[in-house]
Amino acid sequence: MDLTPVVIGLLKSIFIFIVPVVLIIAIFKYRFFKGWIGEFIVNTLTWIVLDKKLYHLIRNVTLPVEDGTTQIDHVIVSPYGIFVVETKNMKGWIFGGKNQPTWTQKIYRHNNKFQNPLRQNYRHVKALEDALQIAPEKLHSVVVFLGRATFKTPMPENVTYPLGYLKYIRSKCDVVFSEDEVERIKSRIGQVRLAPTRETHRDHVAALKVRNQAP
User: Residue 206: how many CA atoms within 13 Å on its side-chain side?
Assistant: First the structure.
């Protein structure tokens, strides 16, 4: 009995199963895809949980600023204010405080310093505030940690995990914009943002590198 066709069929089945798994593992190692997955999770949660008639999600908003551009992961426009959302897809223990310039990510014995995401998002909030000419108290900064990150120091309520992010947004119940104002804000964001294209993202990354290298 010739088992060659059976063996070939088995090898093909293994190949079809293994290759996608290997590709997925490889993809998840790249920072770009990690960021994309984090944004996808936030987008999905927002779309499923929040009332789409009240909360209007605008993704990947790039705005011109004095020293280049700033890129916002998510903007949510609602009658209860504008939520400016920064996502962090990280793992390990996270140490930091509201007023500290840098926070620490600890994975086993390795420590990695990174910019306080509240300060990072403050730049986004101010850019949107200036572009829309909106009072600062009507904009809310939110930082969402995804992945396997664990806070090891107390965090302010607007630095949270995905479910806490939704809870924080829904905790804002005071109406500050009418329906017409919400529509005008959405339209204005469409006018002031740069086109959400690969070229815009590439130019933003290049400008960011130059800014970070500046003395």
Answer: 6
